[in-house]
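Here we describe the complex-level prediction in full. Unlike the single-chain runs in Section 2.1, the two entities below were treated as one system.
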Amino acid sequence: MAICVTLNGSPREFPAPLTFVELLDELDLAGKRIAVERNGEIVPRSRFPEARLMDGDRIEVVVAVGGG
Amino acid sequence: MAADKLLIAGKAYDSRLLVGTGKYRDFDETRRAIEASGAQIVTVAIRRTNIGQNAGEPSLLDVLPPSRFTILPNTAGCYNAADAVRTLRLARELLDGHSLVKLEVLGDAQSLYPNMPETLAAAKTLVAEGFQVMAYCSDDPILAKELEELGCVAVMPLASLIGSGMGIVNPWNLQIIIDRVKVPVLVDAGIGTASDAAVAMELGCDGVLMNTAIAKARDPVMMAHAMKLAVEAGREAYRAGRMAKKPYEASPSSPESGLIQKSA
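The structure predicted for the assembly as a whole is:
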């Protein structure tokens, strides 16, 4: 079953409900220092292997950048 | 000289200069400037990743590894307490549970002046959630004291507007804050050049946080080193205790006796 999520503000479709590990692989972000939020709640890294994205999720993936 | 360390949330730092990581040409310049500054605490912003772009490129935390620097995530760009809290929860997850953070809640995009009601509200929530909050704030002594009473580990009044380089526009307010607040007081924002940093330290500030003054100097690496020296010089001058000002009375530095023209 295909799902549609909002990823960092843009719509994105996936053919099936994937885990966060699979999502990060898909985005070339595996192993990067990032943090993930789903519908306003933190998704702890420890839950990446089993937690799955659901249709309609609003996902934020953030990183540290230069700033003051 | 006796050890003179900056103590924040129970941790001691040798450097009293904290630096931002924005506005540099590239990561190499960022790294070289921060090395030259001697800073141990560096602040970073939290932003969305560019999905599908820059894969494989180094990230800021590869250049400034958390094993070497105390990374201070900030809430730059947040205009209300809820966004600031949300940003710092993400930052804590990003940094493996690290809880020392810089709270800044802005009032408007023109002045970037802090919105103090929202800053106070966010500080209250963050302290309750176990964050160690260093709060960017106005130079109002009453509000600075309130942040301390809420449990902030440091208060960081602005010297002047963020990125303005105007130096310390109200040293008198800053002095009142330094005299009344017990947690470390760091000037954050508005430093333009080395003398501004030295003046802040001579007033008795515990530290200085800056970004633009270094990043937008003609030679950022040299300016970073100048700032290191200025903060150290200002701190030593403060500890040494300056001479009294005597506006209407000169006092010669050389002996008044034994002058050759007074042979009588």
